[in-house]
Every structure is written in C-alpha cells, then in structure tokens.
UniProtKB/TrEMBL annotation:
Keywords attached to this entry: Signal
Protein name (database record): 3-keto-alpha-glucoside-1,2-lyase/3-keto-2-hydroxy-glucal hydratase domain-containing protein
Domain 3-keto-alpha-glucoside-1,2-lyase/3-keto-2-hydroxy-glucal hydratase: 28-280
Signal peptide: 1-25
Superkingdom assignment: Bacteria
Protein biosynthesis among keywords: no
UniProt lineage: Bacteria, Pseudomonadati, Bacteroidota, Bacteroidia, Marinilabiliales
Pfam families: 3keto-disac_hyd (PF06439)
Presence of the UniProt keyword Signal in the record: yes
InterPro entries attached to this UniProt entry: AL/BT2_dom
GO molecular function: hydrolase activity
Coiled coil start-end: none
Length: 299
C-alpha cells in the first residue's frame, strides 16, 4: 500500500510538472528586436512626392523608376539605437518601405511600444504622423497603392488613428461597424454593430476607424495584436479598439484564408520609434475578448 501511495504521489508530481512546463511554454515571450536586427529584413520603394497617383513613377525620359529594393545599405531609414540599455528601432520615414520579419507567424500575441519622433517628409508634411503594423504579410513587397508593402492586414499607427484598420493590396475581412450604410468610404468599429465585409470580398473600401482614441501623445504607447485563426484584435494601451474576422485575400478570382505571414513595420514619411517587441504563441482568443466575436446584431 505504501509503495502504491508513493507511486501515485510520484505520478501526480510528474503530471503537475508537465502541466507547469506546458503553461510556461505557452506564456513564454520571444524578443524580436536586437541591435543587429537579426530577425528582420528590409524593403525600400522610392521617395514619394506630393501628388502621387499610385502608378510607378517615371524619370525625365519617361522610363519607370526602379525601387531601391531589399536589404539595401546606406539609406539609414532603419536603425537600432540604445536607450537606457534597451534596443530601440528607429524608422526615419524618409523613404517609403518596411522592415519585416524573416519568419512567418500564426496564432500569436504580439506586443510592442511605439513613440513618435519629430521629423516628417513628403508627401505627409501637412498630415498626421503615420506608420503601421502589417500582419499576415505574404508575397513580394510593392504590390500596394504606395508600391512599398506586401499584401497584408494593417493595424494602423497614426496620430489620432491608433488601431484603425486598412486592407493592404488584395486583403479583406469582416468588421462589426456602426451605421455601415451611412457612408461609402469609411466606418467606425462597434462591437455591437453590423457585421460588414471590407476590402476583398466586400462592397466597401478597406478602411475602418477605431472605436475610440486611447493614444497618449508624446509618450510611449503599448500596442498589442492578437491573432487566432481568422480573427484579429487591435489593442491600444490595454483597450481593444478593433476586431476583425474572416480574414482573406484575393488570389485571381478566388478568396483564400489569410491567417499567417510575416510582420511588417511601415516607413511612411514620419519618424517613429519601436521597442520591447515581443511575441508568443496562443491557443485561442483570450477569454476577456471573446465577446467581441459573439452574436452579431442587425442594426
């Protein structure tokens, strides 16, 4: 009997240890930023000017201007500096483009801190400072309107627009919106709103405004992105301001699931800083956010 009790105790200990290891593995964060940007690659298009119309620019002889391209040195658009012993990614914004992860990610929780610099460039000298997190990125860069990024879903980082949604190139999704029939060009995310198809597969433009503005001007802002299967949540300083589902992209005449890919950080005519970039795998939508995807109202 004693041996049996001892065996049971050992078995229970082993099971608990395995459970703790499993829990720890699930909760473990991986840092994506170091001083050498070892987890990232870069792409630069060309210097955009005011009046750009979405077409490839031409030189004086009418020939297409070639983009700067992938991983070109000497432009000083993407650099890592150290502040108080912490690696900080500086994106100058002077040339449109992106720094993107070499690895694809699926079913994850991403977090980072972001703060604006002071410099702006054409064509946004008179516009709010702008950047963004492009996720589920796939294919070649330069397929969007600005000829600068991969097909993706956008978590916008913009003065007054932290957490807005943009469809990049041929992406699309469903978002619950307030009064979606009132305007043809934009809507506002509302957790109790009407489920509306956006971008590819929808009949509306690929932009939706966040539900509320939780940006802290002049300070470091914590932004989080939760992606699981076809669903995504944009979180600003602890507040969920956007949720999308049925993430897709158009491949010819077919809509396909868009649920994994690289992560891009945009260079978009404004100086911006990112730090504490970390990611971890998840096994589902966190409980506190599940109501964002529950029964849809018919407003």
């Amino acid at each position: 009997m004693r041996k049996s009790k001892k065996a049971i105790k050992i078995a229970v200990t082993v099971i608990l240890s395995c459970m703790m290891c499993s829990f720890s593995a699930q909760e473990e964060w991986t840092r994506l930023l170091d001083k050498d940007l070892t987890a990232w690659a870069t792409y630069l298009s060309y210097r955009h000017q005011t009046g750009y119309n979405g077409k490839v620019p031409q030189d004086e002889d009418g020939k297409p201007v070639k983009p700067i391209g992938y991983n070109k040195k000497g432009q000083n658009v993407f650099s890592v500096i150290e502040q108080n012993g912490v690696s900080v990614l500086r994106i100058s914004g002077e040339i449109y483009g992106c720094v993107f992860t070499k690895q694809d990610f699926e079913n994850y929780h991403l977090k980072m801190k972001v703060k604006w610099g002071t410099k702006k460039w054409d064509p946004r000298l008179n516009e709010p400072m702008d950047s963004g997190i492009l996720y589920h990125s796939r294919g070649e860069a330069g397929v969007d309107y600005w000829r600068s990024w991969m097909l993706a879903q956008e978590f916008q980082i913009m003065e007054g627009g932290f957490g807005d949604y943009w469809a990049i190139a041929n992406s699309g999704c469903h978002i619950k919106m307030k009064d979606p029939g009132s305007r043809s060009d934009m809507g506002i995310f509302d957790p109790d709103g009407t489920d509306t198809a956006m971008g590819a597969g929808g009949n509306r433009s690929g932009f939706v405004q966040h539900s509320a503005d939780y940006e802290k001007p002049g300070e470091w802002n914590e932004v989080e992105l939760i992606c699981f299967e076809d669903k995504s949540i944009h979180i600003i300083n602890g507040h969920a301001v956007m949720a999308l589902s049925q993430s897709v992209y158009r491949d010819g005449e077919t809509l396909k699931p868009l649920v994994k890919g690289k992560i891009q950080l945009q260079s978009e005519a404004a100086e911006v800083f990112y730090k504490d970039i970390e990611i971890r795998k998840i096994k589902g939508i966190p409980h506190q956010f599940k109501t964002l995807f529950q029964s849809l109202s018919n407003l």
